[in-house]
């Protein structure tokens, strides 16, 4: 019985002796510059007693001293102190501790620091208190709500739209006359002969802004020739004209002239036999005379798509000293007639069905964290 008692007493004495063993973690003197702070980190084992001592060697106050269980569990803090002696903190679980010394004065502070630990048992006696920093990715989530289309409500509504249903080409005789132009020696007569040509007025029914029928001049053409030989050439050109737009059939004798007005391609052969005539087509625009076409020819033809409204004058001049001349002048005008009508139709109306849904958006950041070497 005495032997067993002695063994227990010896064990308890050994355990008591070990439990009081203090291990230095760090002992150093640091300078904390003005208006700044110094921070350092050490690791501690589960069950350790952390012992912290600090003394400002010039006897000046340090604004704040704090010991934090990383990352944010404050274990001890003191303000405006000059000395801390053997402050003990029980370490509940293995972890990193942050030591922060802050200086708010305009002068530096020189602090003597001692950090110690008392291990709980022999197993943690050689615990490595060194802290290393490693990069670690942390994921947080940004939660937000947004409208999401989950389907559509569909219905049909009656609508009316305006559609172009018909386009007609209209060929109209604009001028067809034989004009006498006297010679220089004709008594009481003038060497100049004049004529006026009126272009059809564009029409819009019911109005120009929103017409359902519109008739517009797009171009006109002319042919003129002096004497019988020119007339024969004109008639020959029309006989050769055997194809063309169907609208031309309603205007017998003007096929080649209508084709010129529509296509811009002349099928007339200008004769070089006969007397000549000086001609000029002209008008007044903004108070000034503009010349539309002119020449000194036996016969000629042409097309115009610039002057489409109003009127213009034809001037013929005979430079023959003795003989008067007869000038045949023919013109046709091309109009396009468009017809619209209202057409009913069913329009498909799709209305989106919206609901609010919650989403989580991951945000991955890389941070440096302290770890304890095993």
Task: Describe the protein's architecture and organization.
By secondary structure, the chain is mainly β. The chain folds into 2 domains: 21-129, Jelly Rolls; 158-342, Jelly Rolls, CATH 2.60.120.1540. Helices cover 11% and strands 60% of the residues. The protein has helices at residues 2-19, 227-240, 255-263; strands at residues 23-32, 36-44, 49-56, 62-69, 73-81, 83-90, 95-103, 109-118, 131-181, 192-198, 203-205, 213-226, 277-285, 288-297, 299-304, 311-317, 325-372. The strands form 4 sheets. Strands 9, 11, 12, 15 and 17 form a 5-stranded antiparallel beta sheet that branches.
Summarize it.
By secondary structure, the protein is mainly beta.
Poorly predicted runs of 5 or more residues? 1-18, 244-250
Q: Per the principal axes of the C-alpha atoms, what is the gross shape? A: rod-shaped
The CATH topology of the largest domain, please? Jelly Rolls
Helix percent reads 10-25%
Helix/strand-derived category reads: mainly beta
What count of domains describes the coordinates? 2
* Elements, N to C (H/E): HEEEEEEEEEEEEHHEEEEE
The rounded distance between the terminal residues' Cα atoms is 44 Å
For the record, the CATH architecture of the largest domain stands as: Sandwich
Q: Indicate the CATH class of the largest domain.
A: Mainly Beta
Largest sheet data: 5 strands, antiparallel
Mean pLDDT: 89
Radius of gyration: 56 Å
Query: What is the count of helical runs?
Result: 3
- Fraction of residues in β-strands: over 45%
